[in-house]
Amino acid sequence: MQERPDAETHDDYYVRVRRQIHEWVEGKGAGHRHAGILLLAPDFLHLLIRLTLDSRVDTKSKARLGAALAYFVSPIDLIPEALLGPIGYTDDLAVACLALNSFLNDPAHREIAREHWQGDEDLLGVIERVLGIASEMLGSRVWAQVKRRFGGGPR
């Protein structure tokens, strides 16, 4: 199977994000109450990329997932990684989970998402867990802004 031209760029970014978060968790972030959740950020990044490239995903869903992906990789967001390091991925993770929560309402989409999910835990359970603590992770004001911009909430 021939790789897409963007596969190498995706893998490099994914590896860089994963390494950055793991180094933080093992150093400055050791013991942080949301370290376990932050370690999931690269898996959600990978999932968003794979779903937006999957030909079985309809255009409307790709647009929503693509918007979450663009937010994830953008250096300009509500909690910037450039200033705060891996803690800055908390809003990206919440946005990804909001988009995926909506996407997974269609049972056919669940199977596609499970095919691409690289995480060790159940995808639906992880999304529900992240959305359940998003206000605590982000602060109620930031969480309200995220929900206003990207819609949704816990399933």
| Low-confidence runs | 1-5
The class by helix and strand makeup works out as: mainly alpha
- The rounded distance between the terminal residues' Cα atoms is 36 Å
**Helix-residue proportion:** 55-70%
Number of helices: 9
- What's the gyration radius in Å? 15 Å
**Mean of all residue-level pLDDT scores:** 88
**Biggest pleated-sheet summary:** none
Q: Give me the strand/helix succession.
A: HHHHHHHHH
Strand content: under 5%
Q: Please state the overall shape, judged from the principal axes of the Cα atoms.
A: globular
- Total number of strands: 0
Description:
The chain is an all-alpha fold and 155 residues long. It contains nine helices and no strands. The protein has one domain. Helices cover 70% and strands 0% of the residues. The longest helix is centred in the N-terminal third of the chain and has 20 residues, at 7-26. It is globular. Mean pLDDT is 88; it is low at 1-5.
Which structural traits does this protein have?
disordered N terminus; single chain; 70% helix; 9 helices; mainly alpha; 155 residues
Produce the secondary structure layout.
Layout: H1 7-26, H2 35-38, H3 41-53, H4 59-73, H5 81-84, H6 89-103, H7 107-116, H8 123-138, H9 140-150
Helix pairs in contact: 1-3, 3-4, 3-6, 4-6, 6-8, 6-9, 8-9
Quick description:
With 155 residues, this protein is mostly helical. The protein has nine helices and no strands. The chain has one domain.
